[in-house]
Amino acid sequence: MSSRTPIFFLILTAFTFSCSQAQNKSSLSPQEFATKLKQSGEATVLDVRTPQEFASGHLAKARNIDWNGDNFEKQILPIAKAKPVFVYCLRGSRSASAAARMRSIGFKEVYELEGGIAKWQSANMPITKN
User: Greater confidence, 8 or 100?
Assistant: First the structure.
């Protein structure tokens, strides 16, 4: 075996890992989030902020389940685990925690809005109060 073989396998492994990570990206910019959501058809949009925050403005068709509420896990049970779920909060930390929990209990495709609704609004993306 030549001395180059281990280096070749190391590079090949790193390349393969980086490609698989890029394909499985779960934290999306507002533009990526909107595009992926549009392409996903029957996806669930989940706002994990408080009901008061939700009432101040949210993404169209979003469902509000407060991550800090008493029964987050019970409320997400009816959501289909095999379909895409798009999760966001104000700045991204609550949605990251909620998304991690959802993945740990079997949700297959969970996407997070990078920077939350604050970054969404900074990108001049639409919100609603309906």
Answer: 100
3-state secondary structure string across 4-32: HHHHHHHHHHHHHHHHHHHHCCCEECHHH
Q: What is the pLDDT of residue 2?
A: 54
User: Would you say residue 28 has pLDDT above 70?
Assistant: yes
Q: 48 with 66: CB under 8 angstroms?
A: yes
81 contacts 106 by C-beta, under 8 angstroms: yes
How many whole angstroms separate alpha carbon 31 and alpha carbon 7?
A: 38
3-state DSSP of 72-123:
HHHHHCCCCCCCCEEEECCCCHHHHHHHHHHHHCCCCCEEEECCHHHHHHHC
- Edge-to-edge order in the sheet of strand 62-64: 27-28, 110-113, 85-88, 44-47, 62-64
Torsion angles phi and psi, residue 113, rounded to 5: -85, 105
Are the CB atoms for 46 and 98 separated by under 8 Å?
Answer: yes
Q: Which SS3 state, helix, strand or coil, does residue 44 take?
A: strand
